[in-house]
Amino acid sequence: MNVEAGSCTALVNYLSKEDKDKGLEKELYFNHDKDMISSIEVIRSIDNNCPNIEKNEAKFYSLVVAPRPDEMEHIKNDKERLKAYVKSYQVNSCTLC
Questions:
Q1: Residue 30: which domain range?
Q2: Do the Cβ atoms of 50 and 59 come closer than 8 Å?
Q3: Exposed (0-12), middle (13-18) or buried (19+): which is 93, by Cβ within 10 Å?
Q4: pLDDT at 81
Q5: Helix axis angle, 39-47 relative to 9-17, nearest 10°?
Q6: Among 60, 23, 25, which Cα is nearest to 44's?
Q7: DSSP string covering the chain, please?
Q8: Is 4 in contact with 49 (CB distance < 8 Å)?
Q9: CB 82 within 8 Å of CB 67
Q10: Model confidence pLDDT, tens digit, residues 56-73
Q11: Is 0.90 topped by the overall pTM?
């Protein structure tokens, strides 16, 4: 998990590059209660999440979920099941601000 004090724009741009050539298969962002979130909405939401924090304090944490091949096989490579796991993790661990 990475801790970031600045804007999340660079991270969102980096992640968006992976979807650049996917066309209709592009994967949009999601959070614990909403799917299909645009890059602009992600940046705005994260950068304005905690307006009262100091400039050098963490504004966001980037979580990396990287299941092993056997774990993906266990869930039958179902992206929706993986997304559900990530959402449950978000709900259980996000207590910032």
A1: 2-93
A2: yes
A3: exposed
A4: 93
A5: 160
A6: 60
A7: -EEE-S-SHHHHHHHHHTTTT-GGGPPPB--SS---B-HHHHHHHHHTS-TTS-TTS--EEE------HHHHHHTTT-HHHHHHHHHHHHHHH----
A8: no
A9: yes
A10: 777 777 778 889 999 999
A11: no
